[in-house]
Amino acid sequence: MENVIFTRRSIRRFLEKPVEQEKLERILKAGMQAPSAHNNQRWEFLVLTEQDKKDTVSQMSPWAGMVAKAPVAIIVMGDTSNKELKNWFQQDLSACTENILLQIAQEGLGGCWMGFYPNMERVKMIQDYFKLPEKIVPFSVIALGYSEDENRFIDRSDMSKIHYNKY
Length: 167
Description:
Elements: H1 4-7, H2 21-32, E1 43-48, H3 51-58, E2 72-79, H4 89-106, E3 110-115, H5 120-129, E4 136-145
Antiparallel strand pairs: 1-2, 2-4, 3-4
Helix pairs in contact: 2-4
């Protein structure tokens, strides 16, 4: 099974090796290929490569410590200014985040998704620290980089969870 969907893993340990700009751009473009409600594409990205910023974000959640050690972190954010579609941004940004994770694995890198939304305390910390407009809501933080750990297939399928035509 060489398909990246089956080999992608959450990688939390990174080497001190920079990520090439071309790879980073493909990763971000992959995120923007995600489906979105009414094709509204309300995502925005804050790419962190400066150590002080990564250190600060790593302290904003008990599970974000790996951000400090990652060469790059991406904050996936949503523009909530469209009131009609505001309630759909979580689904859009989840698809976007997953696309990013799949492309990270495709590039031979490791990555890990940390949820910040809907924890409004964490959301506000990012908004305040980066002076984001109120309409821009941080959704997820993704740490990424080269790693000695590898993306590999682990069968997590449970066929008892599949139901056809009735529960």
